[in-house]
Amino acid sequence: MTRTQLTRAFEHRSFTVGAVLTSMLILAALLSFVWTPWSPYDIDVPNKLKGPGDGHWLGTDSIGRDVASLLLVGARNSIVVGVIAVGIGLIVGTALGLLASARRGWIEETIMRLADFSFAFPAILSAIMMTAVFGPGIVNSIIAIGIHNIPTFARVTRASANATWSREFITAARACGKGPWRITIEHVLPNILSVLIVQATIQFALAILAEAALSYLGLGTQPPQPSWGRMLSEAQTLLFQAPMLAVYPGMAIALAVLGLNLLGDGLRDLLDPRLARKR
Question: pTM for the complete prediction?
Answer without folding.
Answer: 0.91
